[in-house]
């Protein structure tokens, strides 16, 4: 799929162009999705007491919240190729708002588990975000655009940890008890998700020159080839070993971030004798690093590509992954609160830069099956979170031990970057495309105008 008129600069403070509207709406939609997806996580101490959940049951709900996302992410990328990111995002947001609000009706572990399982589908929003920015921005800035939109979306993991306890406290101030308070608090993100889905439909378009149906009508995109075409797109991506190498890599960075989002508040609450609000605030710092950390990963990916081409992008990804694993092992050993916070921030920096570096490579693996590649790699993040979830559901394994083993796994996963290689022809083609786009931009990738 060749999309014309991609933007070669990111003009942050404008909504005049379709590229920048897609950029801002996609990161904001993904950001809001975190409130539905992980809004319950900072309230789990209250939910645990209300529903009488054991540690194993809490671990099972953590796994449920990310398990279904693996399947939905695999499908949503191919769906984007078919109907376009605009309609795909609208449907996901509007339908996803329903289980977010219905979790308020849960009165047992089974009902709560099923609600979290259904809510997990919202996590597929990440794939649409990356797909939309990938087809809107040129090679010289696509790494930065992908990383920034995803990073500011992931920032929702931090703001959720901070704001949901405050929303819960606000409900208590209205005179309701804790059992009703956490339920009412979850209705808020559900309503916002639905409204965001409606706005996405009316204020964005699929590509710089129009929506996919319009481009197909003008002959600028190949026609939809039915279910077989979708299957061929997925098969082309699934047969590429590089896609699965990036699947593992993303499992070891985004999967780790999702795991930390799920356990950080209760980890600090239980291990450092903090209040729920304080634990949520500290846990939120991990996600707040996304305001710049993932963007840095994309910026460095684009900078490494300036002189090293696609090999440079892969080299940077390996460095970020290695540093992430080492930092996580150090974090797992911290017993003093101040040191735990400091090392957590270092770890957060590298885990999010690794995510940005991963999707600085994805747009170049297979342009004809971009959605399928993005979907498979994106699903890796949730597959990693599912695998990591089993470390934290065992009654015999402490959180500290689980985090240490997870750090070792990240270091091993970093070696998968060695599999990601490109032919000399593709390297030359992308180097030329990068120089053409950079030559036309006239200045840096990021602009405040």
UniProtKB/TrEMBL annotation:
<feature type="transmembrane region" description="Helical">
    <location>
        <begin position="58"/>
        <end position="76"/>
    </location>
</feature>
<dbReference type="InterPro" id="IPR020846">
    <property type="entry name" value="MFS_dom"/>
</dbReference>
<keyword id="KW-1133">Transmembrane helix</keyword>
<keyword id="KW-0534">Nitrate assimilation</keyword>
<feature type="transmembrane region" description="Helical">
    <location>
        <begin position="369"/>
        <end position="391"/>
    </location>
</feature>
<keyword id="KW-0472">Membrane</keyword>
<feature type="transmembrane region" description="Helical">
    <location>
        <begin position="314"/>
        <end position="331"/>
    </location>
</feature>
<dbReference type="GO" id="GO:0016020">
    <property type="term" value="C:membrane"/>
</dbReference>
<dbReference type="GO" id="GO:0042128">
    <property type="term" value="P:nitrate assimilation"/>
</dbReference>
<feature type="transmembrane region" description="Helical">
    <location>
        <begin position="337"/>
        <end position="362"/>
    </location>
</feature>
<dbReference type="InterPro" id="IPR036259">
    <property type="entry name" value="MFS_trans_sf"/>
</dbReference>
<comment type="similarity">
    <text>Belongs to the major facilitator superfamily. Nitrate/nitrite porter (TC 2.A.1.8) family.</text>
</comment>
<dbReference type="InterPro" id="IPR011701">
    <property type="entry name" value="MFS"/>
</dbReference>
<dbReference type="InterPro" id="IPR044772">
    <property type="entry name" value="NO3_transporter"/>
</dbReference>
<feature type="domain" description="Major facilitator superfamily (MFS) profile">
    <location>
        <begin position="22"/>
        <end position="425"/>
    </location>
</feature>
<keyword id="KW-0812">Transmembrane</keyword>
<feature type="transmembrane region" description="Helical">
    <location>
        <begin position="152"/>
        <end position="174"/>
    </location>
</feature>
<feature type="transmembrane region" description="Helical">
    <location>
        <begin position="243"/>
        <end position="268"/>
    </location>
</feature>
<feature type="transmembrane region" description="Helical">
    <location>
        <begin position="180"/>
        <end position="203"/>
    </location>
</feature>
<feature type="transmembrane region" description="Helical">
    <location>
        <begin position="21"/>
        <end position="46"/>
    </location>
</feature>
<dbReference type="GO" id="GO:0015112">
    <property type="term" value="F:nitrate transmembrane transporter activity"/>
</dbReference>
<dbReference type="Pfam" id="PF07690">
    <property type="entry name" value="MFS_1"/>
</dbReference>
<feature type="transmembrane region" description="Helical">
    <location>
        <begin position="274"/>
        <end position="293"/>
    </location>
</feature>
<feature type="transmembrane region" description="Helical">
    <location>
        <begin position="88"/>
        <end position="106"/>
    </location>
</feature>
<protein>
    <submittedName>
        <fullName>MFS transporter</fullName>
    </submittedName>
</protein>
<feature type="transmembrane region" description="Helical">
    <location>
        <begin position="403"/>
        <end position="420"/>
    </location>
</feature>
């Amino acid at each position: 799929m060749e999309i014309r008129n991609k933007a070669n600069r990111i003009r942050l403070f404008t909504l005049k162009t379709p590229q920048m509207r897609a950029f801002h709406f996609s990161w904001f939609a993904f950001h809001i999705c975190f409130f539905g997806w992980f809004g319950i996580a900072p309230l789990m101490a209250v939910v645990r007491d209300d529903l009488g959940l054991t540690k194993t049951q809490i671990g099972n709900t953590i796994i449920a919240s990310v398990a279904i996302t693996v399947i939905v992410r695999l499908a949503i990328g191919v769906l984007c190729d078919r109907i376009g990111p605009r309609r795909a995002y609208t449907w996901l947001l509007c339908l996803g708002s329903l289980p977010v609000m219905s979790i308020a009706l849960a009165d047992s572990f089974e009902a709560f588990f099923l609600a979290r399982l259904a809510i997990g589908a919202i996590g597929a929003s990440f794939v649409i975000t990356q797909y939309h920015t990938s087809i809107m921005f040129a090679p010289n800035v696509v790494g930065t655009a992908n990383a920034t939109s995803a990073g500011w979306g992931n920032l929702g993991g931090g703001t959720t940890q901070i704001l949901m306890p405050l929303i819960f406290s606000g409900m208590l101030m209205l005179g309701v008890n804790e059992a009703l308070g956490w339920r009412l608090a979850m209705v808020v993100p559900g309503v916002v998700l639905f409204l965001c889905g409606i706005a996405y439909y009316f204020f964005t378009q699929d590509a710089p020159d129009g929506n996919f149906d319009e481009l197909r009508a003008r002959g600028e995109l190949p026609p939809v080839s039915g279910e077989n075409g979708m299957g061929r797109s997925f098969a082309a991506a699934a047969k590429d070993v590089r896609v699965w190498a990036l699947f593992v890599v993303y499992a070891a960075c985004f999967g780790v971030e999702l795991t930390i989002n799920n356990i950080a508040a209760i980890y600090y609450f239980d291990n450092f004798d903090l209040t729920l609000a304080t634990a949520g605030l500290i846990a939120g710092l991990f996600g707040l690093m996304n305001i710049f950390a993932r963007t840095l990963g994309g910026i460095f990916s684009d900078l490494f590509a300036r002189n090293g081409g696609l090999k440079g992008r892969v080299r940077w990804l390996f460095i970020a992954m290695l540093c992430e694993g080492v930092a996580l092992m150090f974090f797992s050993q911290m017993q003093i609160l101040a040191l735990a916070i400091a090392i957590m921030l270092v770890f957060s920096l590298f885990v999010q830069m690794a995510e940005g570096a991963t999707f600085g490579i994805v747009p170049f693996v297979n342009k004809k099956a971009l959605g399928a590649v993005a979907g498979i790699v994106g699903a890796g993040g949730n597959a990693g979170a599912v695998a990591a979830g089993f470390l934290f559901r065992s009654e015999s394994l402490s959180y500290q031990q689980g985090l240490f083993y997870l750090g070792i796994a990240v270091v091993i996963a970093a070696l998968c970057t060695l599999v990601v290689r490109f032919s000399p022809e593709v390297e030359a083609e992308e180097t030329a495309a990068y120089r053409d786009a950079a030559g036309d931009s006239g200045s840096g990738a990021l602009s405040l105008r």
